[in-house]
Specification:
- With about 210 residues, the protein is of the alpha/beta class.
- It has nine helices and six strands, in the order αβαααβααβαββαβα.
- The chain has a four-stranded parallel β-sheet with strand order 1-6-5-2. The chain has a two-stranded antiparallel sheet with strand order 3-4.
- Helix 8 links the parallel strand 5 and strand 6 (about 180-185).
- Helix 3 crosses helix 6.
Length: about 210
């Protein structure tokens, strides 16, 4: 077994790789979310780890990522809270035989002693490699959580933020009071790139992607 980031022979992600992982500095909050908590920037060794986790689930890299997700936060734990996930595309779930976001969400819920529920149905294909306008076709339908004021919405990577936004909007439409995004890594878009994504999508004219 080797480190998925640098291929060194070790039992997991090696310490030098953990130390080199760049922290996320993107503070933009996608529309519909009250907050987005993210630990790392999706680049270099971090991207290698995420891709390895999705390609080789038997190695347990998803559990490694799950243990590294940001803490729920005081405001989430002091209210009635449930964990859910931004459901992956049907094509990816069928080809992999599982949903990485679901595994992360269930692992996260177990670790923090929180309830977990499947609240979102996805309508739309994979987002990778699509333009912002194509990504904007994505939508979700949500089921209201029973007796929960706060939803922690878990995903592995946030790129433009459209997936999180669409999921959060669907949750709010069924009466959820607060939606907090939790992810392992996000792409560090600069301000110009973010504004271009907004203009191309045509669906979030006043907010962040």
């Amino acid at each position: 077994m080797s480190c998925p980031s640098c291929a060194s022979r070790c039992a997991g992600v090696c310490e030098p790789c953990w130390a080199s992982f760049p922290r996320s500095v993107n503070t933009a909050v996608p529309d519909g979310l009250d907050a987005l908590r993210c630990r790392y920037a999706y680049d270099g060794a971090v991207a290698h780890l995420v891709l390895a986790a999705k390609a080789t689930p038997a190695h347990g890299w998803l559990d490694t990522i799950g243990r590294s997700l940001p803490e729920p936060g005081f405001e989430a734990l002091t209210k009635s809270c449930v964990v859910t996930w931004a459901t992956g595309s049907r094509a990816h779930r069928r080809s992999r035989g599982y949903d990485p976001a679901e595994r992360l969400a269930r692992s996260y819920a177990r670790r923090h002693g929180l309830p977990v529920a499947e609240l979102l149905d996805r309508h739309g294909g994979p987002q990778a490699g699509r333009t912002a306008h194509e990504r904007a076709a994505l939508r979700f339908e949500a089921r209201p959580p029973r007796g929960s004021e706060v939803v922690l919405l878990v995903d592995d990577v946030v790129t433009t933020g459209i997936t999180m936004s669409r999921a959060a909007v669907a949750l709010r439409e069924v009466g959820v009071g607060a939606v907090i995004g939790v992810c392992f890594a996000r792409r560090e878009l600069n301000a110009a790139s973010a504004m271009n994504s907004i203009r191309e999508s045509g669906v979030f004219p006043g907010g962040a992607v």
